[in-house]
Amino acid sequence: MNKLLSFLLIAAGGAILYPTKVPISSGSDVSETSEVKADEIVNWNNAPSYKFHRSGKALSAKMLPETYTKHSLSNFSDFPVIGPEVISGLKNQLRVLKNRRKKKEFTFGNLNVQIEQLQETIELLMKYADKPEILNKALDAHQIKGKDNKGNVHFTGYFTPVLKVSREKNDVYKYPIYQRPKNWTGKLPSRAEIEGGNAFDSLGLELAYAKDAIDLYFMQVQGSGIVEFQDGTHEHFAYNSGNGHKYKSIGNFMIKQNLATIEKVSIKHIKKYVADNPEMQDTILFSNPNYIFFERKPAETKTRGAAQVPLTPYHSIAVDPDYIPLGGCYLAAVPVINRKGVCTHHEYRLLFAQDVGGAINGPGHVDLYQGVGKQGQVKASAMHHFGGLWLLLPKSSDSETPEVLRAGRH
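Above: the chain's sequence. Below: its structure in token form.
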């Protein structure tokens, strides 16, 4: 039996099963509530067949007893390759921790995490990037319980949009993009009050004007964007802050109002629905009272998350910091999706918690950064699937530790 699959079978009573590659037929027509058919499962490296839903959710998973369940990383046989891009992300994680030095220890459910542990993890990953056999013995993998308390973590995607704008308002470019008002007294207005009630008129807060309200909305949801002015110049509009109102999904609103279905509530669908029903635009957008303000940055500025470091495409994640520590490094079973929206297998990858989001709540949801522009949008829109997530931490001093590491700790 493959060592990794064997480990996943016994860990936490068989709590989660994530084969690295157990493909299913790309032509399969699996309903949203059905499991993959037996004849669509194939063996991988002579390992037993494991079933998972088209959404990527492991089937027959057992309940995890705590928010985090510890496993030995030495039971994993296929540790992800740590290349230059990952090394760059690890260096950014050190910067995240440097900015968090005022607080030395954090509690996440049953797990107490010291900032020195997070730093040591990063240093080990960088030092032994080409020696996975040492990392396997030096680190433990703490599995988060996920959305269903069975280890199934919901993976969604986000990206940096590119938005055409104008410096002046006109009949085409008429939707203002605002910076945060200074010296505002009291609670900031809601989206409806800002966009429908003209709460900021005559305050001079406009950074630019967009021609499409839906595109502007999704730039706010993503948290930043590249804007292209009519003269061909670009600027980076970075996240500044929000208005303090709770985020509410317009997709969920449309589903409840029978304007969309769970299967069809993508950015593309929402844009098409509003284009066909322009009278519904304000009703849909104003259902989310949350509003995001931006600030100007140079065009070459890389997209940054809440931790104020550049995001690494396919490796940076937005998390709920009450459950997942910013600055933490995660081993993840990331769902891989075909063109029909079916999870065909899971790919093991290192992820970095570097961002937060209003829609990211609890231990069962992370948002994976997918890059800039149309390609990032396509990949982000396609990802609404499940995988697994393990926080990497150094083994405790009384655990089995390689001789080379024990010597380095004295």
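Residues 331 and 350 are 5 Å apart (CA to CA).
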